[in-house]
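#data-curation
PF: Archiving a pair of folding outputs for the training set. Convention for this channel: one message per protein, sequence first, structure tokens after, nothing in between. First:
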Amino acid sequence: MDRIQLKQQRKKKRLLKRLVLTSIMIMGAIALYFGYTVFSVYNAASNSYSELERGMKSELRTEEVKITKEPFSMLIMGIEDYSSEGVGRTDSLMVATIDPVNKSVKLLSIPRDTLVDIPGEGEDKINHAYAKGKKDLTIATVEEFLDIPIDYYTTIGFKGFKEIINEIGGITVDVPFDFYENSDVDNSKIYFTEGEMNLNGEEALAYARMRKQDPRGDFGRNERQQEVIQAAIDKLLSPTNLLKIDSIAQHIGDNVETNFKVSDALAVQSKFKDFNTSSIEKLSITGTDVRYSGIYYFQADPVELTEVKSALKAHLNHISSTVKNSEIDEVNEEL
């Protein structure tokens, strides 16, 4: 072998070593980034964890729910966080029942002015429960109102909601008709036109909160809130946002409170990885507007309420469908 060939072989070996070293460095950087992202997500999500005074198990359950094997429920509370006293009221209340085995979800919006019995406080609007006893009393009130166990909860304030919507790049909604709503920031008018619109955080909050201009009142408002939740989930799971999950998780950790553990969330997500949010079954409660002592309340229709309660119970496997029908018959007989 002559000198030229020897030099060429040495040059090839040096080049190969550099390529191997570069590959190792790139793989190491990717591993470090992945590790940092996982740590950031876990740390941020852990910051939002807050257990209930009762512990994990609802008093309406005999044992703690197995989250990947049994249907469970979650109460989603949107909180007015502009109160000068530091304790706002629930501006929106939604109950989700989730079946991880059959991959089905039901979503119920409860009108904020619904007349209910707040445990230990007496009759009042359901959104006053949070001001009187925060998340624990709100959960107890919803459990009594719907007669179902509430296994998990999530609270988010106006500020946090807007930050998260902005972080995921806004959401797309289908505006049902032209209207405007005042901004919660400077009270300026935000205009919405019928058809598809892309909304930032401030606009999405105004869209979800408007009630007075909606001919359907709370029912139209509740449907828009459900639409916003669905749109946010779709956007959150988009490939673009999965690449910046650490930043999104930080915003969630700073603004959301929940008793849903990171490990549970990941386990449930794996069950619903091919889930289409358009298949979420949306429920509502009908009723009438009433006034007692000059104060406005929404009074749920007893027959409709019983049907909704039975649907949620059946989805949670809390009762059989035969019991559901008998309950409705009993209410009809009373009326």
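PF: Second:
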Amino acid sequence: MAAPLKLISHKLCPYVQRAVIALTEKGIEFERIDIDLGNKPEWFLAISPLGKTPVLQVGDVAIFESAVILEYLEETEAKPLHPVDPLRRAEHRGWIDFASVALNDIAGFYTAPDEAAFIAKTSQLGQRLAWLEGRTAAAPWFDGEKFSLVDAVYGPVFRYFDVFDQIADFGILANKPKLARWRKSLAARPSVRGAVSAEYPALLRDFLQRRNSWISRLQARAAA
């Protein structure tokens, strides 16, 4: 690819992490530019119609939405991360969309304002991930031996639980042995580890504390 790549990023954004993992797996050089989504620069608003990260700049063209970025990289770069078979590829795309739903559930979990809402969101997230437990391969990756784009999008999902587990055992991943093995494999993958900085856990804890939600209270109690 002749045009230089710039990835407009936010340090906590799980959708940015997807793109970073895919770029890294494909061995593509890129420049990562972190912005503050609470104080979006004008130049960013001029290229991002939705005002969200990630945005991949390819020369003068700005590509927005992580799913579109992943598909663009898959269509233009070597080292494919999608299956060759059209049916399996379609199935993988479905589970990639499912990851976005799971991320919305996670947001509902950490923004639940009171205990009752938190319990309901915890149950909802656990049930959502039970579907994933029923589909994923035993190990090491979603579909067996080959790392795919599905793995790239679930690395950021499971990373949340590294911080959640420090607050309490919420039981969301209980009795899901295949997810536990998959989570362990993802945590050891260099592309997944390198998708965030060393300050990510502290940044996420600070973000959670500022939600003024039920998990904010639980985190404060755990730290006391």
